[in-house]
Specification:
30% strand; 35% helix; 141 residues; four-stranded antiparallel beta sheet; 10 strands
């Protein structure tokens, strides 16, 4: 039996990809590169242009908006998910609290994959639409 791919296993826990099959998760995992960061390193700054998403394998990060800590992230958490879908300004500053390991996937590569995998594209759009509905409880359509 082949050993499990840690990137694919981690992707199973990402809400954006929940429900995708093993083949699709494997295709996304192939796009991901490992990144190691040191304690105190800023991973992204609020307002800077973003074009990639990170999945935390190990370590901890603070997430700040407007200079105020709004959350902490750790193993299995996603950072920069919005930039994977649509490049643009980062909505928060993220700093490593301790030495950490992440997997990164870029906007351009991910969109190229969606161009050749309608199943992944459809799943992503369905997931985003579901999230928008939950945000707007007064929606009638």
């Amino acid at each position: 039996m082949a050993p499990k791919d840690p990137k694919r296993e981690l992707l199973k826990t990402v809400p954006l990809f929940a429900g995708l099959g093993g083949r699709e998760l494997g295709r996304i995992a192939q796009l991901m590169d490992q990144v190691d960061v040191r304690a105190g390193q800023v991973l992204m700054r609020q307002g800077d242009r973003g074009s990639e998403m990170y999945v935390v394998e190990q370590g901890r990060f603070t997430v700040e908006r407007g200079g105020q800590t709004i959350s902490e992230s750790g193993p299995g958490d996603v950072l920069g998910e919005i930039a994977l879908i649509a490049e643009g300004p980062r909505t928060a500053t993220v700093t490593a609290v301790e030495p950490s390991r992440l997997f990164v996937v870029g906007h351009r590569e991910f969109h190229a994959l969606m161009d050749v995998s309608p199943q992944i594209r459809s799943h992503i759009f369905d997931t985003l639409a579901s999230r928008l509905r939950k945000l707007d409880t007064d929606a009638i359509c």
